[in-house]
Amino acid sequence: MIAEKMKELVSNSSVIRKMFEEGKQMAQIHGAENVCDFSLGNPNLAAPNTVNEALEAVIKEEDPVFLHGYMNNSGYEDVRNTVADSLNRRFQTNFTAESIVMTVGAAGGMNVAMKALLNPGDEVLVFAPFFGEYRCYASNVEAKLVIVPPNIPSFIPDAHILANYITPRTKMVIINSPNNPTGVIYPESTIIEIAKVLEEKQKEYSTEIYIFADEPYRELVYDETVKPPFITKYYDNTIVGYSWSKSLSLPGERIGYLAVSENIVDFKELMSALNVATRILGFVNAPSLQQRMIARCVDDVADLNFYKNNRDSLYHGLSEMGYTCIKPDGAFYLWVKTPIAKDTEFVDLAKKYLLLTVPGSAFGCGGYIRLSYCVSPETVQIALPKFNLLLEEIEG
Q1: Apex CA 265: angle with CA 260 and CA 270, to 5°?
Q2: Which of 228, 199, 221 is nearest to 211 (CA)?
């Protein structure tokens, strides 16, 4: 018999993953070319050539005993130096190798950070809508996930509303920008306001409140005038979690990092805790081959025009039909208001047209759906007439 805690997690398993599995079944029945699967953020875009070139060079040029062996739990020092130098060059920060922990993706990094910082009963605040797996990560360390209601229609967090949800047990606030599922980028003014509220609450409760900046979509930005603020520059108690899953189209490789503000409280003690958490959670260290590869193409990015073209086609196509959409400045998700009240009913009805979408309720915000447009352009073109037929059926 499985653990009681796992029974709950299994019963509430990811809606996104369920839709993905259902999509594979539908593809077997109807043909993959007829199923429009917008469920999972799984890029239908090859990694840049530099990734394969780097992998080949690493295998040919580096000592295999070194390449496939253990290293410090935080990762190779030279790789961490490379990551730190990249961040400093791009964001005018002051990271060193000692500030960086190489991780098994952003999800692995967030679990490491929570293990290092949170005690049972501590509160983790998230802004709805939010990535549903945060619930599981908090549950892993027996912390309580507290949901700050969505700020509709902008979906940009309101710092004044946030203030009402902070208590003496608040230990972490997760900021995800560009956001999954909305694609919204939080402006600098919002980050400044949030930082001010957290500073005030730290003083009021004589405690530390940490920001975890979950940033796997940082490089996926479509307007050069709109850039996600780098949060360590605004708030000292910040840990940044990053992954190359999206920026380099490497979701299955699970490689990322934690970057810890040099001004965070008890920096050395925290870095030691992160290092140990990496080991005791069973990761031991991030994959060695992927670390060596990243050191050679740390600043490379996949073709953003692929996503931008899909975004524009889907956003304009659905908007012209009469759907209400939030135009995303980043990531590769479109957040769409459902024309019927219950988003789950809309999702079920969409399956009739071989359209796989994810209900907003899975992200803590009902009445919307998320479309992951990291699909092929052909899928978008096939899907648009289906969405039109769906809307016509709903409107009678």
Answers
A1: 55
A2: 199
| Max Cα–Cα distance, the chain, nearest Å | 67
Q: Taken in order 336, 338, 341, 342, is the CA torsion positive or negative?
A: negative
Rounded CA separation 347/337 (Å): 12
Q: Which residues contact 298 (CB under 8 A, 6 or more apart)?
A: 82, 83, 86
Please answer whether residues 112 and 132 qualify as being in contact, where contact means their C-beta atoms are separated by less than 8 angstroms: no
For residue 390, the 8-state DSSP code is H
For 252, residues 6+ apart whose C-beta sits below 8 A from its C-beta are none
129-184 confidence digits (pLDDT tens)? 999 999 999 999 999 999 999 999 999 999 999 999 999 999 999 999 999 999 99
DSSP-assigned letter for residue 108:
H
Phi-psi region of 284 (alpha: psi -120 to 50; beta: other; left: phi over 0): left
Query: How confident is the prediction for the chain on average, in pLDDT?
Result: 95
Query: Nearest CA to 150 among 124, 127, 172?
Result: 127
Q: What is the number of residues in the chain? A: 396
Per-residue tokens: 300: 């490379």
Q: What whole-number distance in Å separates Cα of residue 56 and Cα of residue 44?
A: 22
For the whole prediction, is pTM greater than 0.90? Answer: yes
Model confidence pLDDT, tens digit, residues 195-227: 999 999 999 999 999 999 999 999 999 988 888
The residue whose two tokens read 């799984």 is 42
pLDDT given for residue 383 in this prediction: 98
What's the pLDDT score for residue 20?
67
Question: By CB neighbour count within 10 A (0-12 exposed, 13-18 middle, 19+ buried), where does 221 fall?
Answer: buried
Query: 244: alpha, beta or left, given left = phi > 0 and alpha = psi -120 to 50?
Result: alpha
Cis status of the peptide bond prior to 129, with omega within 30 of 0: yes
Residue 207 contacts by C-beta under 8 Å, 6 or more apart in sequence? 168, 170, 171
- By C-alpha distance, which of 363, 315, 369 is closest to 342? 369
Residue for token pair 């709903």: 394
Distance CA 167, CA 201 (A): 8
CA distance 84 to 97: 6
User: Is 141 in contact with 120 (CB distance < 8 Å)?
Assistant: yes
Dist. CA 133–CA 130, nearest whole Å = 9
Smallest CA-to-CA distance from 388 within 36, 143, 5 is with 36
